[in-house]
Amino acid sequence: MHGSRLQQYWLLWVIYATEFGYRYTGDEYWPLIEVDIPGWQANEHRQQLKSCFKKFANTYAGVTPTGRWANWFTIIAWPITHAILPKYLQLQFARALHAARYELAGIANLTPAAEGRLLSRHAFNVSRRFEELLEQEELVGRVLLAMLADTQGSTHAPIHAPTLRRIVRDLEQERLAREYLKETRSYISEY
Questions:
Q1: Integer Cα distance of 44 and 58 in angstroms
Q2: 43 pLDDT above the threshold of 60
Q3: How far apart are CA 167 and CA 83, in angstroms?
Q4: Whether the Cβ atoms of residue 71 and residue 65 lie closer than 8 Å to each other
Q5: Pick from 46, 45, 63, 66: which is nearest to 54 by CA?
Q6: pLDDT of residue 175
Q7: In the predicted model, is pLDDT for residue 152 greater than 70?
Q8: Contacts of 104 (CB under 8 A, 6+ apart)
Q9: Which of 46, 13, 51 lies closest to 31 in space, CA to CA?
Q10: DSSP string, 39-87
């Protein structure tokens, strides 16, 4: 695998790396890729992968990772951020959403960043990585809005509908997360 091939197929690399970001468990990111991609040499390809994500951000208005975690992990922050809500953070997200349900029900028309800040105020006993995800206020707010909104008929949904369905489907695989989401949606729909 040569560097020029990474740049030639930059969009495919963004997609592929983002899928690993979604499956990321908080441990090591690079060994996942090294096992799955023959010829992958992390030292050689990491910076090239980051440049693929920067190109994606510029071309398609992708999210640029921010916050302490993104400043510390300047490369893996890109695929994990674009994974939107990695599986290992989904229960914590559902718990915080559930804790915020009373305040969410009484507020309309907040910006995604304001929604993200609101969720952050209700996130207790969470992992450091989840706290760092919450620093991405606009992204978190968009996920929150998408999970609570009926976006099926909307052409301006904050998250691509099939992506949101996948996140929700995976989140609902865990009983407690499923209950948090169901109760939150039910309470807010009554308001």
A1: 23
A2: yes
A3: 10
A4: no
A5: 63
A6: 95
A7: no
A8: 97, 115, 118, 144, 148, 184, 188
A9: 46
A10: T--HHHHHHHHHHHHHHHHHHH-PPPP-SHHHHHSTTTHHHHHHTSS-G
As a whole number of angstroms, the distance between CA 171 and CA 89 comes to 9
**Could you tell me if 184 and 101 are in contact, meaning their C-beta atoms sit under 8 angstroms apart?**
yes
What local confidence, expressed as pLDDT, does residue 4 receive?
Answer: 55
Sign of the dihedral through C-alpha 32, 33, 34, 36: positive
Q: For 41, left (φ over 0), alpha (ψ -120 to 50), or beta?
A: beta
CA distances, 123 to each of 89, 93, 94, 134 (Å):
12, 8, 10, 9
Average pLDDT, the chain: 87
Does residue 130 surpass a pLDDT of 70?
A: yes
What tokens were used for 164?
């949101």
